[in-house]
Specification:
- The complex is a heterodimer of chains A (72) and B (305).
- Chain A is mainly alpha-helical and 72 residues long.
- Helix content of chain A is 86%, strand content 0%.
- Chain A is rod-shaped.
- The termini of chain A are far apart.
- With 305 residues, chain B is an all-alpha fold.
- Helices cover 63% and strands 0% of the residues of chain B.
- Chain B has helices at residues 2-5, 8-61, 63-73, 89-108, 119-134, 137-140, 167-174, 178-190, 199-217, 228-234, 245-258, 273-283, 293-304.
- The model of chain B is unreliable at 80-196, 221-233, 242-251 and 273-305 (pLDDT under 50).
- Classes of the chains: A mainly alpha (72), B mainly alpha (305).
- The interface between A and B is large, with 39 and 42 residues.
Chain lengths: 72, 305
């Protein structure tokens, strides 16, 4: 008498396992993509830092040499 | 035992109810998992991939900046953690920018969406503008002089900026011939590019500036002093005569007479700048005035002549 519910339960558990498996694979894929992108973005980050430094030094030099003009 | 007392109908009902609740919960769990999976697979990953594509486009647009900074500091910028081969280039570029800032700003960033190409053109222009900035008439004559090794990031002077440490001096030392030297001295202050990577170069520039001043206003000798490198080699030559090396030979006798302390009066641009300067200070007894050998030479010349 308990068997039908057990069968139903077993079916549902089987589906759950399949969904979890696909979910794990998709998350692994997502993680890989993010790693790739992060690796490529380090260059951009360096560019940004260099530009920032350049800007700071330019500002400093202009201030030091009194070449700085007011904004237009 | 208590169960036996429960009427069986109620027990069966409770069992039914529990089984159904279990089934319901399991289904909910399954649906939640499938929802998560679909969310991630359908929405998140495509957006992330698109983001990566956009970041790649941005990086492609920024490649010219990367090349510019690389050539400026003679670096190699890799994607990995250790980008800068010579971090000393960065802080010292500030000094280089002191004379070159305006020119650089004007030339290097005429419009920020700049083409990725000719860094050589960048190198060429600031020299022109720097000359205008420096305002020295003698320097203006240098304008036409070749920005030959632009690709190798030479300053307008013909220095090879690739090796900020010693290549400049080596270039100078190698080209002790007269004409280029006189030109270089004119060039070097105007040519202070970002690539000058050290305080040594700053000192060189200062010396050259003082040399130019001397040339214009200084000793009785009319023309430019020839290569400091040659002077350093010979250590005894005051080369304030008009022509560079060629007259040095003739003047060596005079110069040796003139100089009380052999290396002191010489305009040094040695590899070891500070050390040589200190040596000059120590050795030069006749003219204790100037801290550097440059003005000493002028004073010596004046005193002797």
């Amino acid at each position: 008498m308990e068997n039908p519910y057990e069968q139903v339960h077993q079916n549902i558990l089987g589906r759950i396992v399949n969904n979890v498996e696909r979910l794990n694979e998709s998350i692994v894929t997502l993680n890989q993509e993010l790693q790739y992108i992060n690796a490529r973005n380090t260059n951009l980050q360096l560019m940004g830092q260099m530009c920032e430094n350049y800007h700071k030094s330019v500002q400093f030099n202009l201030d030091a040499t009194n070449h700085k003009r007011e904004p237009l | 035992m208590t169960r036996t007392r429960v009427p069986p109908a109620m027990a069966e009902d409770s069992l039914e109810r529990l089984d159904q609740e279990i089934t319901l919960h399991l289904q909910q769990i399954d649906s939640n998992f499938s929802y998560c999976f679909s969310k991630i697979a359908q929405d998140i990953i495509p957006n992330v991939v698109e983001y990566g594509a956009v970041c790649d486009q941005v990086m492609d647009s920024c490649n010219w900046l990367k090349n510019m900074f690389q050539e400026a500091g003679n670096l190699q910028i890799d994607a990995v953690a250790g980008p800068k081969a010579r971090p000393a280039a960065e802080p010292t570029t500030k000094r280089a920018r002191d004379s070159a800032t305006d020119g650089d700003v004007q030339t290097l960033f005429p419009a920020k969406p700049r083409l990725a190409g000719d860094s050589s053109s960048i190198v060429q222009l600031p020299a022109m503008q720097l000359k205008s900035l420096s305002g020295a008439s003698s320097r203006a004559t240098v304008a036409a002089d070749p920005m030959v090794d632009v690709t190798t990031t030479t300053t307008t002077t013909g220095r090879v900026l690739q090796l900020p440490d010693s290549s400049d001096e080596e270039a100078r030392d190698g080209d002790t011939d007269a004409q280029a030297l006189g030109e270089r001295k004119l060039k070097t202050p105007a040519g202070g590019e970002d690539a000058d990577g050290s305080t040594m170069q700053r000192q060189r520039r200062k010396r050259k500036l003082s040399l130019l001043l001397q040339q214009q206003f200084g000793s009785s000798s009319s023309s430019a002093v020839p290569s400091p490198a040659t002077q350093t080699k010979r250590n005894t030559n005051i080369t304030f005569d008009s022509s560079p090396l060629r007259k040095e030979v003739a003047n060596q006798g005079e110069s040796t007479k003139e100089i009380g302390a052999p290396p002191g009066t010489v305009i040094h641009f040695p590899t070891g700048n500070s050390a040589s300067l200190e040596d000059d200070n120590d050795n030069d007894v006749s003219d204790p005035k100037s801290s550097r050998g440059e003005s000493r030479a002028g004073s010596n010349n004046d005193s002797t002549r």
